Amino acid sequence: MPKKIEIYDTTLRDGTQAEDFNLSVEDKVRIAVKLDRLGLDYIEGGWPGSNPKDEQFFCEIRNYSLSKSRIVAFGSTHQAKFQAHDDPNLNMLVKSGASAVTIFGKTWDVHVRDALRIPLERNLELIEDSIAWLKSQVEIVFYDAEHFFDGYKANRDYAIRTLQRAVKGGASCLVLCDTNGGTLPYELTGIIGQIKSEFGEKIRLGIHCHNDSDVAVANSLMAVSAGVTHVQGTMNGFGERCGNANLCSIIPGLILKMGFTCVAGERLSELMNTSRFVSEIANLPPNKYQPYVGASAFAHKGGVHVSAVQRNPETYEHIRPELVGNMQRILISDLAGKSNILAKAKQFGMDMESHDPVVMAIVSQLKELEAHGFQFEGAEASFELLMRRATGAMRKYFDLVGFRVIDQKLKEDDPPQAEATIMVRVGGQVEHTAAVGNGPVNALDNALRKALEKFFPQLKDMSLQDYKVRVLPGRPGTEAKVRVLIESRDRKEKWGTVGVSNDIIEASWQALVDGICYKLIRSEKEHSTD
Q: Over the Cα atoms of the chain, what is R_g?
């Protein structure tokens, strides 16, 4: 029977120490509910007593019935000037109502002398007394041995004494922390082996790694191979400095690679969705290159690779992407060959054969467009339209008669005013409209929608989600060519389109029109299947 590993998430506490990562109380509650659905064993909610937001979270989360996860309150050993039962920090942990508590204590003698400025023996008393009192109040008490590996290397005997006092106090688990993130895997496993031989099987060991040496995931997995059964980390590796150990890599590594079990392994296909959800709530873009759950984790670009994975995905994929809720993607670029085009045609529901001359025509057109600055990796909707136009299967929804965009600033302290006028022909009828907007591109988008919505009311369901401009190499300064990427969405999906020109308005127009045409094609498909 595979050994079961506890997964302990600290996104809501340690993760929020990351730069640009901020969560409201409502955000923290929503993430906690999502993590419970994934099946994480423990969710560290914050440090009650350190700030009003964390106190409010522990009050609010009581209104939710979590099915898989326990909420954990985090704090430190009691202050040297107090006894454990009198310490405000420890009392706030109990008052939080959490059924499990984690406290950290000093393992490294340098910290005891220079940070706490107390005798080494007094620090040992703080550890034991804090844990013993908390154990009389709550069911589970985890002890985070802060800076354990640095402390062990600096003063082995004292580091072990801190753990012995934590055990004496009744700690449910000793969590060995690589707080500075500087320990390498070969050091870590050796030290854990010595700790296991020191304590035997009478106490469970945990691991808490930071990623300052880019080995937090490796250290966490190696710790489990060395006998650790409790793993701490954060979703997407969010955390202070370079981040914490990434649970989105640790969980599939444990389940799919090492043969261990955990509750979250039962819902592993929810992993990518949960990863994206946390990033979305934090208002941070997902890391497309992230292993397992990133959009590029199973994306194939080179023609040789594509040809191989079409025959057997194992040739270039270490797991089946569906296991973690991801999917295989075939990218389109100037490296693409017939295999890429045929794979995309199948994805788009288009019937093409390898000997079809249209396939090579598309490859040739693709290479020419990318030579002029087009890029379709983030604009697959534009590429689908390109393929449909090449096969003659693309309907012309409207024709542009002309447009004009005016951007004027009338006073020094007033914002600019943008207005767009447009004429389009739809089925022989000319529509002439005007609209204002927050900038010239927004004004043009508004005017185009205004002209078309009377003919295609389904466009009311569509909105522009993101707009990016990149200056391309070539001519310097304001003469440079630009590439515009637009992300649009409706209630069902998102799609990307691209435009390239020396004129930013023209490039934006290309991407806007593609976005609208893609929406209309999708609407036709949905209508035909109803």
A: 29
Strand 482-489 to 429-437 pairing? unpaired
If you average pLDDT over residues 82-105, what whole number do you get? 96
Residue 489 in 3-state DSSP? strand
- Mean pLDDT within 393-411: 92
- The closest of 427, 419, 491 to 454, measured between CA atoms, is 427
C-alpha 168/C-alpha 22 separation (Å) is: 38
Residues forming a β-bridge with 349? none
End-to-end CA distance of the chain: 49
Please give the Cα distance from 20 to 23 (Å, whole number).
Answer: 10
HSE on the CB side for 397, CA within 13 Å? 20
Domain ranges of the chain: 6-281, 299-368, 399-529
Task: Looking at the structure, give the CATH architecture of the domain made up of residues 6-281.
Answer: Alpha-Beta Barrel (3.20)
Closest CA to 292 of 261, 313, 322, 259: 322
User: Going by C-beta distance under 8 Å and a sequence separation of 6 or more, which residues neighbour residue 17?
Assistant: 239, 240
- CATH number attached to the domain at 399-529: 3.30.160.270
- Whole-number pLDDT of residue 152: 98
Nearest to 466 by CA among 426, 493, 494, 504: 494
For residue 255, what are the contacts with CB-CB under 8 A and spacing of at least 6?
Answer: 261, 262, 265, 268
Closest CA to 385 of 511, 207, 252, 477: 511
Rounded distance between C-alpha atoms, residue 155 and residue 489, angstroms = 58
Residue in the structure block whose two tokens are 């300052």: 212
The whole-number pLDDT of residue 347 equals: 78
At 94, the amino acid letter reads: V
Write the pLDDT tens digit of every residue in 155-190.
999 999 999 999 999 999 999 999 999 999 999 999
The answer to whether the CB of 449 falls within 8 A of the CB of 441 is no
Spatial neighbors of 122 by CB under 8 A, at least 6 apart, are 80
Number of H helices, E strands in the chain: 17, 16
Q: What is the mean pLDDT of residues 258-268?
A: 95
Q: For the segment 291-341, what is each residue's pLDDT rounded down to a tens digit?
A: 999 988 988 776 566 667 666 777 778 999 999 999 877 666 545 566 667
Q: Hunting for tokens 């542009």 — which residue is that?
A: 400
3-state helix, strand, coil in the chain (%, to 5): 45, 20, 35
Phi and psi of 258, rounded to 5°?
-105, -10
